[in-house]
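Step 1: inspect the first sequence and its tokens.
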Amino acid sequence: MTVGRLSKRNYPFAWKFVRLKRIGKAKVIGSGPWPSRVILRLHLGGLEHLEISSEKIALEVAVQSYEPFRRFIRVTRVPEGLSDPGSQEPGDPLWVEIQARDPQGKDCRGLPPKNGYWEIVLPPAFLQAAGSEIHLRWIDFYR
């Protein structure tokens, strides 16, 4: 498991995960309140399943590996009153921004090219509910 620790000097930050296995997990531990903007960069070819969770809240994220490369965000655990469990749409408080990027960080359509990555912006509502640890579990492509 990859473990990252954050301190106040890391804020604001983009957390970069490289040399990832196709199926894996990681944990990010904060030492205070999360910054208002947290960006994850996962160097994976696909993103057919990503679970982002903490003790109080959990999201599942997926990107189709074929046209039209639809994004799916589903809330599986949530504090009362924040959002309804189930699918999220753009504009919902727990919608996760996901973008494939090339090695130079430019947007690309579809899946990231070789040495590219997924950029995932965690919603502020998730960070406020998350507590001090965020757990990630991913599968690049179902086999």
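Step 2: inspect the second sequence and its tokens, then contrast the two.
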Amino acid sequence: MKMDRFINFFRRRQGKKGIDWELIKEDSGGSIIASFLGGKGFSIHRLQAFFISTLAISMTIILLFCGSFGALEVRIFRSTILTFFLLLAFLVHPLGRKSWRDPLNVFFVLDVVLIFLTVGIQIYTYIDIDRFTWKLGELSFLEIFSGFAEFFLILEASRRTMGLVFTGICFFFLIEPFFAHSLPSFFHGPSIDFEQMIEQQFMRDDGIFGIALGVMVNTISIFIIFGAFLQKTLTGQFFIALANSVAGKFRGGAAKIAVITSALFGTMSGSVVANVTVTGVVTIPMMQKGGYSKEYAGAVEAAASTGGQIMPPVMGVGAFLLAGILGVSYATVCYHAIIPAILYYLSLYFAIDFHAQKMNIQPFNKVDVPDPINVMRDGGYLFVPIGIIIYLLIKGFSPEKAVVLSLLFIFALSFFRHQTRLSPVKLLEAFEEGGRMMVQIGVACAAIGLIIGSVGASGLGTRFTSLVLQASGGHPWVALVFTMIAGIILGMGVPTSVVYILLAVLIVPLLIQLGFMPITAHLFVFYFGVIANITPPVAMAAMAASTLAKSNYMKTGFISMRIALPCYLVPFVFVYAPELILIGSVSKMIIAILSAAIGVCSMSAANEGWLVGRANFLERVLLFVAAIFLILPAMHSSFFGFLLFGIVFIMQLKTKRMFKVDYRVAKG
């Protein structure tokens, strides 16, 4: 009898919509290997495509091999991968041309010189590896020249991939130790000579080849490859179909689909911009078609994609950075990070729902909403690799081995449908795109290594900590504000993982010194490094989303900041009330979480001007004040916040009922 019910349950769904795979076509237009394989005869551009794709594929294979069987000697491994990063940066971002596909110019000769110089330094590293390993004796002329050349190559690659502002910051920190004796304020200190700098930055593992590059080549790179494989197997499109089946039938469904999709894909992606690009190309037009303005559609996608970086289980590889630096397990980091991440997405949900009510945005037509059972039937197998990663990580496997094993499952499962099948060409495209996607972050990590090395060599880190401590007057909350500002400024245009590593070295020790718990201090700086992606004037996520939406960039950025506004307060709360990161008694945790959730709802209502109905100025002020009191970590403030929120809720409910009565009377 139960089996008959089960069969009938699925029969009723046979005519219902699932994933329309025939309408989904994977775009290979950006693949460089496709340009090589699709070309005919000999040409310089086809030769360039061959070299770029060969380098990217080779680097990906080396990283996967080392992730499976263990890395090479530290210096050899990191310098080899950095060489790949530099070569790809010079080839993919040529001097004087917008793209490697543009016609060659006279600057191509300089690109070739930089390429040979990069290869030459790496060959010298292999030959003289004992000197780099044991650091014995005085530096030779070749070592000094190689170190100087490596500085120049990294800064030039950084200029091409990250821009002038970031490169200028790195250059300043690189030369600061030489002139520290004549600089003002906390930059003033004892100077070091050029040979000492070469030894610190190039010969040792404290500078270029230190923690930032180490985390990149060991962990971040593997997850970027994983993200490339997810793209090639159309997992992003499956997430969109699944989100549509869940949220499409509700008001404002298009924006809610974007939030769910970006949360699912963003947590596995190492880059906010990549997340916007992969999911936004579908969700932004969907939101515009559903009735949202261009700016609002772009803002929702930017905010939702940014949140993926703080959403467990992977947190855009942030979980592994936090675990490695804190010296705790991966599961511990996810446990503490889950509630703030949920609050982030709750704030987006409430903002979208209130906006949809205010603008009278209707749900999708039921005919266009796929059946969730059929969607899972058609593409549920694409969840398996993600589940395997989570299971292996919880079991204690290293992130590298967990991802490599999951990639094997992705390859095998891709053959379930011809649309997701990883043919030899698509497999090479996944390797190549994975390699290219990590170049920007890889170069940035090497450049951040220059900053960390200089800070360590000159004692600037200690002086910076003393300055912040002095400026804050010993008040912890003032130090937190300074930290927030530093995180947002550094996060403007710099990958989140790189910002976190830098702040963990420079600022976290100060927060711990002021009495904050290590886990709360690290999460605090990590969150503001993430939120910088939607904070104007730079707001990289909003910039990428506005390009897809063809909207005003600054307006998109400010809207994304507004709909995620409650999340700027949440980090301040959990540093003082660790109950929000699940530390403390169960009763206090429940009260703190419920209070913060209602506070997030109240602030979203104040921002949108809608709760049960349209809010007037006084009601919006009361809702905003209520939100502050609800989010604050104190029982009496939560009670007062509940009271204010309840007053506005009852006022609006009463007004709505009176309006309905008046409407019926007028109609009658």
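Step 3: confirm your contrast with the notes below.
Residues 206 and 255 are 45 Å apart (CA to CA). The longest helix spans residues 635-667.
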